[in-house]
Amino acid sequence: MFLLSDIIYLIAYKLLGYRTKVVRRNLEVSFPEKDEKERRKLERRFYHHLSDILVEGIWNLFASPRWILKHYRVINREIVNRYYEQGKSVVLMSAHYNSWEYMVTSLNMQLFHHGIGVGKPLSNKALEPWVFRRRTRFGTEVVYSNNVREVVDFYDRHHVPCALMMLSDQSPAHADKAYWTTFFHQDTAFLYGAEYFARKYDYPVLYYRVDKVKRGHYTVSFDVLCEHPNEVPQYSIVESYVRRLEKDITAKPEYWLWSHRRWKLKRS
């Protein structure tokens, strides 16, 4: 698997220079304290990891449950499962940091809760139905923005404890509907959806971090961000998430998705 990843690295980075202008600009603004040599070293580590993520993302569509659970381990699932025992749904906030596709596929196997992954459909309409079936083959339910409210409301009314997985670091569609804060020295828009659902249904909010132990092996750990959403100021949940994410990225920056045009929106 990783021989293929190494080949993709050479082609995408060394030969084609895939999105190197975007990556270099993002790293330059986010880490002004690093010199050019340090940033280029970080850039190379990022492209090695990006190649791994691409190959693992494809492999994830075919891997067995046993293989996934061996290579993607949750180390403190009891933090989440105790809410299931109380009959409570939870909101899980994370990011495009380390591997996220394994979590989408295995969420329903990792926890007692019914797993729901909130995402975006593929731009390739011909491939989308097949990928959707593969990502949901172990029971995780994948929903999109056009039906997420309906789905969450249905399970809440029927008292089914769910784990609502939301990767909240992607760019919002509308600048005027986003929460704005400073993230890596820049005005940055963040999705408000996780806090919205937490407040509407009084769901506890947990942050989960994915650590790369070695190539192909990850651990997942949960922390409680907010247990009672309606007892804290508005936007404080998203802000806590942003600060936690920034800390994790700063510690191991090569594992975040720097090729994403994260700062394309401008504050009005």
What do these coordinates show?
The protein has a seven-stranded mixed sheet with strand order 1-9-8-2-5-3-4, sandwiched between helices. The chain has 268 residues and is of the alpha/beta class. 33% of the residues are buried. Strand 6 (179-183) and strand 7 form a beta hairpin. Helix 1 (2-15) packs across helix 3 (36-60) and helix 2 crosses helix 3 (36-60). The protein is built from ten helices and nine strands. The protein is globular, with a radius of gyration of 18 Å.
Short description:
This protein is an alpha/beta fold and 268 residues long.
Instruction: Specify Rg, calculated over alpha carbons.
Output: 18 Å
Determine the fraction of residues in helical runs and give it as a percent range: 40-55%
Strand order of the largest sheet: 1-9-8-2-5-3-4
Relative strand content: 15-25%
**Number of DSSP strands?**
9
- CA-CA gap between termini: 45 Å
Q: Mean pLDDT, rounded to whole units? A: 96
Number of DSSP helical runs: 10
Topology:
Layout: H1 2-15, H2 20-30, H3 36-60, H4 65-71, E1 72-74, H5 78-85, E2 90-94, H6 101-110, E3 114-118, H7 128-135, E4 141-143, H8 148-157, E5 162-167, E6 179-183, E7 186-190, H9 193-201, E8 205-214, E9 217-226, H10 236-251
Parallel strand pairs: 1-9, 2-5, 2-8, 3-4, 3-5
Antiparallel strand pairs: 6-7, 8-9
Helix pairs in contact: 1-3, 2-3
